[in-house]
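Q: I'm writing a short explainer about Fe-S cluster assembly ATPase SufC for a general audience and would like to include a description of its predicted shape. Could you first generate the structure from this sequence?
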Amino acid sequence: MLEIKNLHARIAEDETEILRGIDLTVKPGEVHAIMGPNGSGKSTLSYILAGKEDYEITEGDILFNGESLLDMEADERAAAGLFLAFQYPIEIPGVATMTFLKTALNAQRKARGEGELSTPEFMKRVKDKAAELNITMDMLKRPLNVGFSGGEKKRSEILQMSLLEPKLCVLDETDSGLDIDALRIVADGVNRLRSPDRAMVVITHYQRLLDHIVPDVVHVLSRGRIVKTGGKELALELEKNGYADYVGEQAA
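A: Of course. Here's the predicted structure. Afterward I'll give you a sentence or two in plain language.
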């Protein structure tokens, strides 16, 4: 489903190189965790997958279901089935959460040649999925993420992901700022979306998220390259020993 080949990338503004040869293959049904110290390139990788314009690809390619993402704008990638959950979801004053969700869902349906949902159909979908995430109707009437707690912002993003039903979910430090209860609710929402036809890339610093979203494969990213790959036990090793053994390594 996702194949990253020798990906090199830098910040467009000052040409600082961040990714120095990423190779990664994620098959349908798999959950891959990417862990690493601050500054290793984890969030940069997620932004590039989603199509953020602040970065320049200098070498390599990203294939999504056999098609290069580099030829696609951010909205085209979303319509094709790629979803990025941000570490810090942005606030959009003046736009009700419910309005945002309906617009996003119908825009993707239109891009795929599907008909728009009627208001009753949309409301039923939202209410059913919101209840699973402890999201109230009052919260859905508020401007998107404005005044939301950290947990509310993350639950709102998982609701978006649940409604859009993407083929590839990229979660950029979704556990950031969550207490134990909020983490469990968010993780349960993610786990409900696990499917043989859907892949996930979970970016995190800590093992605690992976106690709830158990990965099939764990990668260690350091200095813009994957330097070690293993099973879920690798995350436990990192929790115990930290990243000191991998800082400065070039490649596995």
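A: For your explainer, you could say: The mean pLDDT is 89.
Q: Perfect, that's easy to follow.
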